[in-house]
UniProtKB/TrEMBL annotation:
The chain crosses the membrane at residues 34-53. InterPro entries: Thioredoxin-like_fold, Thioredoxin-like_sf. Keywords: Disulfide bond, Membrane, Oxidoreductase, Redox-active center, Signal, Transmembrane, Transmembrane helix. Pfam families: Thioredoxin_4. The keyword Transmembrane applies. Belongs to the thioredoxin family. DsbA subfamily. One of its GO terms (molecular function) is oxidoreductase activity. This is Unannotated protein. Residues 73-234 form the Thioredoxin-like fold domain.
Length: 244
């Protein structure tokens, strides 16, 4: 074999070896990426499971002041109604959204008939998912303080009607301000409080009050001081049973 032939053969062998090494390196990178993705997925699943348990913790050891007596909520109905209902909620909690969607009309009817007094007590439970949770409660506090309970209740309803997914995207403070104005608030009265989050002390106090009452998850619903658990339909039926 001539020198040129040997050189060409050696060159081909070197290129083949380099190609094999490159292929092995690519396979190693793919393996590392696959393992990394599996680990990340497991972390996300475990985190989501923790938050699910935290958000749906059904502790029955809750001692709350009667409906209408808290400074951290908005009421609906006659203060002298024979049955009082308290709903602890987080504006990001999807289970709260399900309950609100199912119960709004029947609770409104019972309140209008003078049968129940309902108090909604929002607080910050899910900040570890998104800062939307405390920002929404802050906006609610601003509207309640500046615009009164009627507008605050309308704003409360709009927050749930426009509730974001726990995975986002999450409305910014301007979007919250727009909803407040839609609910009937004067923009000049609530703009600074919502955009600058001036009621965060209120949010912290409301959250502390809920925790001190023994609330560990949302929604937590009390009917005449007793925690009621179950599906939205079961909770609504428990309120109806208390009225009957």
């Amino acid at each position: 074999m001539s020198k040129n032939s040997r050189a060409r053969a050696e060159d081909r062998a070197a290129r083949a070896q380099a190609a094999r090494e490159a292929q092995k390196a690519a396979e190693r990178r793919r393996t590392i990426r696959s393992v990394t993705l599996v680990v990340v997925a497991m972390v996300l699943i475990v985190g989501a499971a923790f938050l699910f348990v935290r958000a749906t913790d059904g502790s029955t050891d809750v001692t709350a002041t009667p409906a209408g007596s808290s400074e951290f909520g908005v009421t609906m109905g006659d203060p002298d109604a024979p049955v009082d209902v308290i709903v602890y909620e987080d504006f990001l909690c999807p289970f709260c959204g399900d309950l609100e969607s199912a119960s709004r009309e029947p609770f409104q009817e019972l309140a209008a008939d003078g049968e129940v007094l309902v108090e909604y007590r929002p607080f910050n439970l899910l900040e570890r998912i998104s800062d939307y949770s405390p920002r929404a409660v802050n906006a609610f506090a601003v509207v309640l303080t500046e615009s009164g309970p009627e507008v605050a209740k309308a704003f409360h309803d709009l927050l749930f009607e426009n509730q974001p997914s726990e995975s986002g995207p999450f409305p910014d403070n301007q979007a919250l301000l727009d909803l407040a104005v839609e609910a009937g608030a004067e923009e000049s009265e609530v703009s600074e409080g919502i955009l600058e989050q001036t009621m965060r002390d209120w949010v912290d106090a409301a959250t502390q009050a809920a925790q001190e009452a023994g609330v560990q998850g949302t929604p937590t619903v009390l009917v005449d001081g007793q925690v009621v658990q179950g599906s939205p339909e079961e909770i609504i039926q428990a309120v109806r049973d208390a009225v009957a």
